[in-house]
């Protein structure tokens, strides 16, 4: 009989470098063969997604309650979060409809040039506005001191992303034309349009870089990803998030706890934009992989026995939160004794000003939590 919950779910850790070229279909489980971890595997483990999304306010409140319960010494940061969120909303005003632009990529150079110029005007206006605000800030505050630098890097990365979207590499265009022609021969139905949309996406490494800049905008510092495995029935499931953000409860301590894990999704995984239910929206392997990442990190989660994650799809993000009911002394074995629920939010598009403003508070709060020890150390020296 194994003696600890970590041993009972067969967790093992090994530090790995980020693999930016991986897609969700390349995260494998081993059970004598290969295959992706599907949503049905989660259901067999007694873990299910909610039927409808939570509001971002309800979602954030759940997270705050769980973190402050485990780490009551952490300040609430309400004043700092409100100030930072308001400043960012008021100064980062650019707003782009990426889906609409992707539909017109073949409209010719003149149209693409017009779109690019208009986008750049918005971003430059935001840069100038933020620079003026920075001159009036109290730079003795750690967050105020780093705010403009984070905004500048985010805006530069946004410009790079836009340029890549509008001017994809030539080899990608050639591959797109070849695949489109081949797909047309094989299937003349609606899947052709979907295939074309998938191939017009820029390189995933560009999106990966953008996700890191999104985190940095809210003062979130990534840590090295950890390869964790757990045993489920006759399967050994390997779990490696694309990005991870750690947490240390003491100054200058190693960030052994996990605050947030990100899973990047390539292509066009959203199947049904009309439905609120995530099970209807996303492919089974996306749901399965995200669920396995959430479960694998539970023993190390800041919100133990719950864990927080984010699904990243192009410029859209969805927050997800695994909630597990654990009795004192109960081991975390699969299938779970009590039903595990994965709560989630609606998708938010970071390129749209309204959506970006809606996620400011939750992301700034997580950034403040991660940095609270460094901030306290600075205040006492």
Automatic annotation (TrEMBL):
Basic and acidic residues bias spans: 20-30
Comp. bias regions, Polar residues: 1-13
Residue segments, region Disordered: 1-32
The protein, known as: Uncharacterized protein
Organism, scientific name: Magallana gigas
Source organism phylogeny: Eukaryota, Metazoa, Spiralia, Lophotrochozoa, Mollusca
């Amino acid at each position: 009989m194994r003696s600890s919950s970590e041993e009972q779910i067969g967790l093992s850790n090994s530090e790995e470098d980020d693999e930016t070229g991986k897609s969700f279909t390349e995260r494998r489980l081993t059970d004598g063969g290969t295959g992706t971890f599907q949503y049905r595997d989660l259901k067999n483990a007694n873990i299910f997604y909610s039927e409808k999304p939570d509001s971002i306010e309800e979602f954030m409140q759940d997270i705050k309650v769980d973190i402050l319960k485990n780490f009551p010494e952490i300040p609430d940061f309400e004043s700092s979060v409100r100030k930072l969120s308001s400043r960012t909303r008021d100064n980062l005003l650019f707003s782009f409809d990426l889906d609409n632009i992707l539909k017109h990529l073949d409209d010719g150079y003149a149209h693409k040039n017009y779109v690019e110029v208009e986008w750049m005007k918005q971003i430059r206006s935001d840069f100038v506005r933020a620079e003026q605000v920075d001159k009036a800030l109290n730079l003795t505050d750690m967050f105020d001191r780093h705010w403009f630098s984070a905004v500048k890097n985010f805006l530069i990365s946004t410009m790079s992303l836009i340029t890549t979207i509008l001017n994809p590499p030539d080899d990608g265009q050639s591959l797109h034309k070849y695949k489109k022609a081949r797909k047309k021969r094989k299937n003349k139905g609606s899947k052709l349009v979907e295939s074309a949309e998938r191939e017009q996406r820029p390189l995933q490494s560009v999106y990966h870089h953008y996700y890191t800049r999104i985190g940095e905008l809210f003062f979130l510092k990534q840590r090295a990803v950890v390869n964790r495995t757990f045993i489920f029935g006759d399967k050994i499931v390997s779990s490696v998030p694309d990005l991870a953000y750690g947490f240390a409860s003491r100054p200058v301590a190693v960030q052994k706890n996990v605050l947030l894990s990100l899973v990047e999704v390539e292509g066009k995984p959203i199947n049904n934009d009309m439905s609120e239910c995530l099970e209807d929206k996303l492919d089974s392997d996306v749901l399965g992989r995200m669920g396995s990442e959430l479960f694998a990190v539970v023993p190390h989660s800041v919100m133990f026995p719950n864990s927080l994650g984010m699904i990243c799809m192009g410029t859209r993000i969805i927050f997800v939160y695994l909630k597990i009911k654990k009795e004192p002394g109960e081991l975390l074995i699969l299938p779970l004794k009590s039903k595990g629920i994965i709560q989630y939010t609606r998708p938010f598009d970071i390129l749209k000003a309204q959506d970006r403003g809606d996620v400011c508070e939750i992301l700034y709060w997580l950034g403040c939590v991660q940095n609270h020890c460094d901030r306290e150390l600075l205040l006492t020296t």
